[in-house]
Design goal:
By secondary structure, the protein is an alpha/beta fold. It has helices spanning about 5-15, 30-35, 45-55, 90-95; strands spanning about 25, 30, 60, 65, 80-85.
Amino acid sequence: MTPSLLRVALASLALGTSIPAQAVRICPIGDSITESFVGMPSYRYYLDSLLRSGGYDFDFVGTMSGVALGPARHQNFDQDHEGHSGWTIQMINDHLD
């Protein structure tokens, strides 16, 4: 997802809502696009940057952190997630609580 597409999505979510008093917990969930790989930029980095620049208090959550096979291209973002390379939507659904 491109940064401009993320801006549109975030703007549409923000209309008519107020900012909560405590951090909003966000679980980035999906397959390899969510997990990302060493040397590749992750959409999670861009989402983190957009939320921070918008003044939102948030926390990415999940049992995974970083990217597959090494360090993330960008290190200065909340790297928690629930991305699993190769998983299908059914596999992800089967693991939701």
